[in-house]
């Protein structure tokens, strides 16, 4: 039997931390050549052996990386009882990247608004980061137009939106918003953090007649009363993401803020950073907000009281999210005639058995974890049963010209 040639991986132009006894020395601008399961060489200007294309590690994700990352994130959401997401898709490095993300979303079975984004693209990342000189690539708008003609995907579960942050000059960004709105997309989103952002996103959108009920702003930490009033008057929603906002020190979570309360919902922000279940976000939001209310009462020498209810928090993770994307007539609550997006909790687990008998909302908000979610149904299809994700049929190819699903090549059984 002929020997299998060794597989090579070449890691280029990084900082390699090497040991010299108990001391660690950084070798900057060095390469590492791996042969099979062994580090073959550490040096500068290394090359792969002749005839070996190897695995050239890049700072950019490839389209297939995006597919598997997107699929994993969607399945993590479903496993955590999330049936619908607004996906601010930070991945628009090429049309192929975008198509693979949509294919993964369709394959997962989740309901989603896939918000196609405009992002600065990295040209080089070594001792410094260099961005591509072309701010908006020539393929960006044609790709959006192609997808807008083809959507919805996945039998109507996957709709198209746009995620356009103010990362470019204002005139360029506003133009992208207007071109996207001209395509009659379902939904628009961008980041808005007054505490740390140098520009006033609400004012810019308002001045250009871009604020409306099809817009959700992420975070809004530090929003002033004037901007909060504009958000409410234009029926814009804010998605608060307590986990990342508290981690990044963006300021108080606005989920229960009086000047925004009826126009807020919850998100997880980044499934690459934290859990993708909304149980965590509901619990963090209510307890943090109660703590802030308590501190203010102490400072004002007032009697402490609990004004934020668990029912308020439950609504943030359910019907308020549906309202944010103008689908509260179809999802977000259990009612005859609505879409069958349902989460079933096992009330016999050690965490739930007593609490659920006494107060089911309390049980979900304060006691439940992902392991207590027994079943998840999305659009009438079982996606989790008996506490386990159901097998996932991987879509072969998505015809992004027509939106047609071109068959399933294999099924992944989630262990």
Automatic annotation (TrEMBL):
GO cellular component terms, A-Z: cytosol
Cofactor(s) the protein needs: Zn(2+)
Name the Pfam families on file: Amidohydro_1
Supply the alphabetized keyword list: Hydrolase, Metal-binding, Zinc
> Which GO terms label this protein's molecular function in UniProt?
deaminase activity; metal ion binding
InterPro entries (alphabetical)? Amidohydro-rel, Metal-dep_hydrolase_composite, Metal_Hydrolase, Metallo-dep_hydrolases
Give start and end of each Amidohydrolase-related domain. Answer: 264-382
Would you tell me the protein name for this molecule? Answer: Amidohydrolase-related domain-containing protein
Q: Please report the organism this UniProt entry assigns to the protein.
A: Aspergillus tanneri
């Amino acid at each position: 039997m002929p020997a299998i040639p060794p597989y090579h991986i070449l890691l280029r132009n990084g900082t390699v931390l090497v040991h010299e006894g108990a001391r660690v020395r950084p070798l900057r601008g060095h390469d590492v050549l791996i042969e099979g399961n062994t580090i073959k060489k550490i040096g500068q200007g290394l090359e792969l052996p002749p005839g070996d294309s190897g695995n050239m590690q890049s700072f950019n994700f490839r389209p297939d990386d995006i597919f598997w990352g997107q699929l994993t994130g969607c399945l993590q959401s479903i496993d955590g009882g999330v049936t619908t997401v607004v996906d601010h898709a930070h991945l628009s490095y090429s049309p192929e990247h975008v198509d693979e993300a949509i294919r993964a979303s369709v394959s997962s079975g989740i309901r989603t608004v896939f918000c196609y984004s405009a992002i600065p693209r990295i040209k080089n990342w070594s001792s410094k980061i260099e961005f591509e000189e072309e701010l908006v690539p020539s393929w960006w708008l044609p790709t959006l137009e192609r997808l807008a003609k083809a959507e919805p995907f996945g039998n109507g579960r996957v709709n198209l939106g746009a995620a356009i942050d103010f990362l470019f000059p204002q005139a360029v960004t506003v133009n992208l918003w207007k071109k996207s709105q001209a395509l009659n997309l379902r939904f628009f989103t961008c980041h808005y953090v007054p505490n740390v952002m140098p520009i006033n996103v609400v004012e810019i959108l308002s001045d250009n007649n871009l604020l409306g009920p099809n817009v959700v702003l992420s975070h809004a930490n530090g929003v002033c009363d004037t901007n909060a009033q504009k958000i409410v008057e234009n029926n814009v929603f804010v998605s608060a993401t307590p986990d990342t906002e508290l981690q990044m020190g963006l300021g108080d979570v606005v989920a229960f803020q009086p000047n925004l309360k009826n126009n807020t919902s919850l998100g997880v922000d980044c499934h690459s950073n934290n859990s993708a279940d909304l149980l965590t976000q509901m619990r963090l939001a209510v307890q943090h907000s109660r703590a802030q209310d308590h501190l203010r009462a102490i400072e004002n020498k007032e009697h402490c009281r609990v004004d934020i209810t668990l029912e308020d928090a439950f609504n943030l993770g359910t019907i308020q999210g549906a309202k944010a994307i103008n689908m509260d007539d179809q999802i977000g609550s259990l009612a005859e005639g609505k879409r069958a997006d349902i989460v079933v909790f096992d009330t016999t687990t050690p965490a739930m058995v007593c609490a659920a008998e006494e107060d089911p909302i309390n049980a979900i908000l304060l006691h439940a974890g992902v392991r207590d979610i027994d079943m998840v149904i999305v659009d009438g299809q079982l996606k989790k049963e008996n506490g386990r994700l159901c097998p996932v049929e991987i879509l072969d190819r998505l015809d992004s010209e027509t939106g047609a699903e071109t068959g399933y090549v294999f099924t992944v059984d989630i262990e």
